[in-house]
Amino acid sequence: MTVGSIEEQARVILLDTYEDSYRFAPKEMFVALKQGIAEVHRLRPESRYVDCRLVDFNITVPPTFTDETLSQFRATEIQMDEFYEHALVCFVVYKMYLKDDTDTQNAELAKNYLTMFGNEIQ
Fold first, then answer.
1. pTM recorded for the entire structure
2. Residue 14 C-alpha from the chain's centroid
3. For 29-51, what is each residue's pLDDT tens digit?
4. What is the distance between the alpha carbons of residues 63 and 75, in angstroms, rounded to a whole number?
């Protein structure tokens, strides 16, 4: 799984697929993904192991992107078992909906996606 594949799956759920006018900036989603990885590692320490080897993986989100660096960053492989992929997608969606907390419906969606994240990693 890559940073870009998680972003793409989250954007489909969020109905945010128009590349020329994203509602949620890529950087926002990458920061949410970074937080999601940390949360999975915290809740499921065994997620740090890939192919029976301890992997200390953490993404560093650059402060700015060019078209080239954005493309390269999206291609970054996430060193984690594919089992956690949907959980990471749910966490990113949760964080994006949480941003819209003034909208009651989106607050409820955020809560639902946080619950799904928790269910995915149990």
1. 0.87
2. 12
3. 999 999 999 999 999 999 999 88
4. 17
